[in-house]
């Protein structure tokens, strides 16, 4: 689905304030819509979560997926799964990831392409960690434009740098699922084990102060320019907070207007849980 050969997309340059109306896709519902969870007049959600390493993209993805009918694609989780399974992509990616460098655009495009192709055109989805370079962003836009399914919302998780490093040092993950635990805020029920499968948790090889510094630097240099790119398209919303619990209610409120009330959960996760 994705491909570098496509012509560059002419994106809208008129900066506009985000409002419910501006979030409505131009390609709105058709009579044949099958996805019952979307409110009439809205296209399926095509959401990108963007934020520095450790800003809580994985945690927010999981919460969105729990509460709304949305498929999630996480580039980091996909890469870690490939490394664990010893695939060709995993072998290529391992060294870069361990060093905090970015995996090549070509590999990333191929990986995400395969995942997007598995999702039906009427299904809502969100991307976590891709695109994170201008080249990836333009490639994705061209592809989505060609199938008339452009990104319609970009949420920037704006978390102060000072609080992020400590969160990273406290983080354990269940690699096969991407589930994230924080030893301070949301420890697993049984020390060292995933709550759902009982399988062992691991530290990410790139979660150490030295590599984190490089990841952060790459983020500033290569990913932050994407914020302007999406701001000019009028689809960027920046949400701020020190913890995921402060930011999630803002995301929830933003997404609720797009989904039917019966799809919205009656209860929320307790406030003390899942801070990273
Ligand atoms: P966090 O998971 O804490 O938000 P992060 O954004 O640095 O931090 P991941 O998204 O899991 O972490 O990515 C981990 C590593 O995988 C990156 O440092 C990079 O090496 C590689 N990677 C992930 N997505 C991409 C991408 N779109 N392009 C290039 N490399 C990527
Ligand atoms: Mg992540």
Automatic annotation (TrEMBL):
<dbReference type="InterPro" id="IPR027417">
    <property type="entry name" value="P-loop_NTPase"/>
</dbReference>
<feature type="domain" description="Adenylate kinase active site lid">
    <location>
        <begin position="171"/>
        <end position="206"/>
    </location>
</feature>
<comment type="similarity">
    <text>Belongs to the adenylate kinase family. AK3 subfamily.</text>
</comment>
<keyword id="KW-0496">Mitochondrion</keyword>
<dbReference type="GO" id="GO:0006172">
    <property type="term" value="P:ADP biosynthetic process"/>
</dbReference>
<comment type="function">
    <text>Involved in maintaining the homeostasis of cellular nucleotides by catalyzing the interconversion of nucleoside phosphates. Has GTP:AMP phosphotransferase and ITP:AMP phosphotransferase activities.</text>
</comment>
<feature type="binding site">
    <location>
        <position position="75"/>
    </location>
    <ligand>
        <name>AMP</name>
    </ligand>
</feature>
<comment type="subunit">
    <text>Monomer.</text>
</comment>
<feature type="binding site">
    <location>
        <position position="171"/>
    </location>
    <ligand>
        <name>GTP</name>
    </ligand>
</feature>
<keyword id="KW-0547">Nucleotide-binding</keyword>
<feature type="binding site">
    <location>
        <position position="215"/>
    </location>
    <ligand>
        <name>AMP</name>
    </ligand>
</feature>
<dbReference type="GO" id="GO:0005759">
    <property type="term" value="C:mitochondrial matrix"/>
</dbReference>
<dbReference type="GO" id="GO:0046899">
    <property type="term" value="F:nucleoside triphosphate adenylate kinase activity"/>
</dbReference>
<feature type="binding site">
    <location>
        <position position="136"/>
    </location>
    <ligand>
        <name>AMP</name>
    </ligand>
</feature>
<dbReference type="GO" id="GO:0046033">
    <property type="term" value="P:AMP metabolic process"/>
</dbReference>
<feature type="binding site">
    <location>
        <begin position="180"/>
        <end position="181"/>
    </location>
    <ligand>
        <name>GTP</name>
    </ligand>
</feature>
<feature type="binding site">
    <location>
        <position position="80"/>
    </location>
    <ligand>
        <name>AMP</name>
    </ligand>
</feature>
<dbReference type="InterPro" id="IPR028586">
    <property type="entry name" value="AK3/Ak4_mitochondrial"/>
</dbReference>
<dbReference type="InterPro" id="IPR007862">
    <property type="entry name" value="Adenylate_kinase_lid-dom"/>
</dbReference>
<dbReference type="InterPro" id="IPR033690">
    <property type="entry name" value="Adenylat_kinase_CS"/>
</dbReference>
<dbReference type="GO" id="GO:0046041">
    <property type="term" value="P:ITP metabolic process"/>
</dbReference>
<dbReference type="Pfam" id="PF05191">
    <property type="entry name" value="ADK_lid"/>
</dbReference>
<dbReference type="InterPro" id="IPR000850">
    <property type="entry name" value="Adenylat/UMP-CMP_kin"/>
</dbReference>
<feature type="binding site">
    <location>
        <position position="244"/>
    </location>
    <ligand>
        <name>GTP</name>
    </ligand>
</feature>
<keyword id="KW-0342">GTP-binding</keyword>
<dbReference type="GO" id="GO:0046039">
    <property type="term" value="P:GTP metabolic process"/>
</dbReference>
<dbReference type="InterPro" id="IPR006259">
    <property type="entry name" value="Adenyl_kin_sub"/>
</dbReference>
<feature type="binding site">
    <location>
        <begin position="129"/>
        <end position="132"/>
    </location>
    <ligand>
        <name>AMP</name>
    </ligand>
</feature>
<feature type="binding site">
    <location>
        <begin position="101"/>
        <end position="103"/>
    </location>
    <ligand>
        <name>AMP</name>
    </ligand>
</feature>
<dbReference type="GO" id="GO:0004017">
    <property type="term" value="F:AMP kinase activity"/>
</dbReference>
<keyword id="KW-0808">Transferase</keyword>
<feature type="binding site">
    <location>
        <begin position="54"/>
        <end position="59"/>
    </location>
    <ligand>
        <name>GTP</name>
    </ligand>
</feature>
<feature type="region of interest" description="LID">
    <location>
        <begin position="170"/>
        <end position="207"/>
    </location>
</feature>
<feature type="region of interest" description="NMPbind">
    <location>
        <begin position="74"/>
        <end position="103"/>
    </location>
</feature>
<dbReference type="GO" id="GO:0005525">
    <property type="term" value="F:GTP binding"/>
</dbReference>
<keyword id="KW-0418">Kinase</keyword>
<feature type="binding site">
    <location>
        <position position="204"/>
    </location>
    <ligand>
        <name>AMP</name>
    </ligand>
</feature>
<protein>
    <recommendedName>
        <fullName>GTP:AMP phosphotransferase, mitochondrial</fullName>
        <ecNumber>2.7.4.10</ecNumber>
    </recommendedName>
</protein>
<dbReference type="Pfam" id="PF00406">
    <property type="entry name" value="ADK"/>
</dbReference>
<dbReference type="GO" id="GO:0005524">
    <property type="term" value="F:ATP binding"/>
</dbReference>
């Amino acid at each position: 689905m994705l491909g570098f050969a496509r012509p560059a997309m002419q994106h809208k340059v008129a900066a506009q304030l985000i409002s419910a109306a501006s979030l409505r896709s131009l390609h709105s519902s058709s009579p044949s819509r099958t996805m019952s969870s979307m409110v009439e007049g809205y296209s399926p959600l095509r959401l990108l979560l963007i934020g520095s390493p450790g800003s809580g993209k994985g945690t927010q993805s999981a919460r969105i997926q729990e509460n709304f009918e949305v498929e999630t694609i996480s580039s980091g989780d996909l890469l870690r799964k490939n490394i664990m399974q010893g695939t060709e992509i995993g072998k290529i990616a391992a060294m870069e990831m361990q060093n905090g460098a970015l995996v090549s655009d070509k590999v990333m495009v191929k990986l995400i392409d395969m995942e997007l192709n598995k999702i039906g055109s009427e299904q809502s989805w969100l991307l976590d960690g891709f695109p994170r370079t201008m080249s990836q962003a333009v490639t994705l836009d061209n592809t989505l434009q060609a199938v008339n399914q452009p990104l319609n919302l970009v949420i920037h998780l704006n978390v102060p740098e000072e609080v992020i490093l400590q969160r990273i040092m406290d983080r354990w993950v269940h690699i096969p699922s991407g589930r994230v635990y924080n030893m301070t805020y949301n420890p697993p029920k049984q020390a060292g084990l995933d709550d759902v499968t009982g399988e062992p948790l691991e530290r990410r090889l790139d979660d150490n102060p030295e590599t984190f510094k490089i990841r952060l630097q790459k983020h500033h240099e290569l990913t932050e320019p994407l914020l302007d790119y999406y701001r000019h398209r009028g689809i960027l919303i920046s949400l701020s907070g020190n913890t995921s619990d402060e930011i999630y209610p803002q995301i929830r409120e933003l997404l609720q207007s797009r989904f039917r009330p019966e799809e919205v959960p009656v209860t929320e996760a307790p406030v003390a849980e899942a801070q990273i």
